[in-house]
Amino acid sequence: MKSRLPRLATRAIILAEGRLLLVNAYAGRRSDLWCAPGGGVEPGRSLPDNLIREVHEECGFDITVGPLALVNEFHDPRTGFHQVDLFFRCTITGGRLDPGWADPSKVVHTRRFFAQEELQAIRLKPDSLPRIAFGADGPAHYDPLEVIVQ
Q1: CB–CB of 65/43 below 8 Å?
Q2: What is the rounded distance in angstroms from the CA atom of residue 25 to the CA atom of residue 54?
Q3: Which of 1, 22, 58, 71 could make an SS bond with 108 (beta carbons 3.0 to 4.6 A apart)?
Q4: pLDDT, tens digit (0-9, with 9 covering 90-100), for 94-132
């Protein structure tokens, strides 16, 4: 296995009317795993600028990016893939959830808001996301390295 640098990604924690925005980002609908919207960081752009771009591409929302809330990392020991996700609290400033919206990368196929009690019935990563999303603001939380789940 060849050593690889970790991939850096930004993710948005967006609550609207007490519900958390999540996406299914598995092309071909090959997984039922949900996650916060966001994605890989492009070099030369700030973390907030990358997150604003990703949320717009995946969901059609304009956002403002607030404080860092969670750092999560995962890896695939078989391939050497390692990703560090930085989750920021964000606020929607424009757009709406449109079922006709199409992710230009064709990765995100479903997006929706979930009430806190609905999260127990879905597969979601990271496990700490509901606690962080619906918890009080405070210092950023760190989730230790875990094996990737698909």
Answers
A1: no
A2: 12
A3: 58
A4: 999 998 888 888 888 899 999 999 999 999 999 999 999
